[in-house]
Design a protein that fits this description.
Shape: globular
Helix content: 40-55%
Largest sheet: 3 strands, antiparallel
Structural class: alpha+beta
Order of helices and strands: HEHHEEHHEHHEEHHH
CATH architecture of the largest domain: Orthogonal Bundle
CATH superfamily of the largest domain: Winged helix-like DNA-binding domain superfamily/Winged helix DNA-binding domain
Number of helices: 10
Number of strands: 6
CATH topology of the largest domain: Arc Repressor Mutant, subunit A
CATH class of the largest domain: Mainly Alpha
């Protein structure tokens, strides 16, 4: 006979199913009168592992999602992929790897000016947010990624972003290394 789940486990599960958006551990606990929910979350992760839906944590927030291998079954309409400009992709990468970062810092890294619309597109996509103002003269706005960025790219935290060795192994840096070697008359690192 299977043991019935305890009331806290059921309450956490119901809270997550009914939530309109992913919830932090603190939000779940607050919703359940301050109950300690970490153990229940771990039990639910194990319970849903390998099933049609999974309990996942993205950016410190918990939610149920369709198992990645079954997502295609639920799509009724083909979503048009969002096409980002090269400038937007570069800005997003800079923000992800250097956050919090100001527009001036993004421009310094890219070596060119960043159009105002570039950051607007990233904010409309929900991947970038205004994170405040830098405490320096002029108090420039600083930008950071959002939990939606992490969820879209399947990252639990920013530490899961690929490092330079992983990017090189994937062949994403080779053209840059080769071009640099050609410009400098030297050899690439390979």
């Amino acid at each position: 006979m299977i043991d019935p789940p305890d009331d806290l486990l059921r309450a956490v599960e119901a809270t997550l199913f009914a939530a309109e958006a992913p919830l932090s551990v603190e939000e779940i606990a607050r919703h359940l009168g301050g109950a300690p929910v970490a153990g229940a979350l771990a039990t639910l992760v194990d319970h849903y592992a390998g099933r049609g839906v999974e309990l996942v944590e993205r950016g410190g927030r918990w939610h149920f999602q369709t198992a990645p291998d079954l997502g295609h079954l639920l799509r009724r309409e083909r979503e048009e992929p969002r096409r980002l400009s090269r400038a937007a992709i570069e800005a997003l990468a800079i923000i992800a790897y250097h956050e919090p970062v100001s527009r001036a810092e993004i421009e310094a890294i890219r070596g060119v000016q960043t159009a105002r619309g570039t950051l607007d597109v990233l904010m409309e996509a929900g991947w970038v947010r205004v994170a405040g103002r830098r405490e320096v003269p002029g108090r420039p706005t600083i930008y950071a990624t959002t939990p939606a960025f992490l969820a879209h790219f399947g990252l639990a935290t920013r530490r899961d972003l690929p490092g330079i060795d992983e990017l090189r192994a994937a062949g994403l840096l080779d053209p840059i290394d080769t071009a640099y070697a050609a410009l400098t008359g030297g050899e690439s690192d390979d």
